[in-house]
């Protein structure tokens, strides 16, 4: 599976995996999912975050060993 929304740039966010080259790391997305169990509220607070971003962040994290 291609995770085309997960990007990594050594010049941005210290090379941490980010969502679509935004200053929003995969780690932060996972933290936000724990903080905002209501997706509607999460989308109100972070309108730039799309459902596919969340899905790919979860897949990315689940593939880490």
Quick summary:
This protein has 65 residues and is mostly helical.
Helix-strand layout with pairing:
Layout (H helix, E strand, L loop, with lengths): L5 E2 L10 E2 L6 H10 L3 H7 L5 H12 L3
Antiparallel strand pairs: 1-2
Name a few traits of the molecule.
Arc Repressor Mutant, subunit A, 45% helix, two-stranded antiparallel ribbon, 65 residues, mainly alpha
Give the class-level CATH name. Mainly Alpha
Helix coverage percent? 40-55%
Q: Any idea what the CATH architecture is?
A: Orthogonal Bundle
What are the secondary-structure elements, in order, as H or E?
EEHHH
Which strand-content bin applies to the residues?
5-15%
Instruction: Provide the CATH superfamily.
Output: Winged helix-like DNA-binding domain superfamily/Winged helix DNA-binding domain
Q: What is the topology, as strand order, of the major beta sheet?
A: 1-2
- Quaternary assembly: single chain
What does this protein look like?
This protein is mainly α and 65 residues long. The protein has one domain: Winged helix-like DNA-binding domain superfamily/Winged helix DNA-binding domain (Arc Repressor Mutant, subunit A). 45% of the residues lie in helices and 6% in strands. The protein has a two-stranded antiparallel ribbon with strand order 1-2. The longest helix has 12 residues. It is globular. The model has no long low-confidence stretch (mean pLDDT 95).
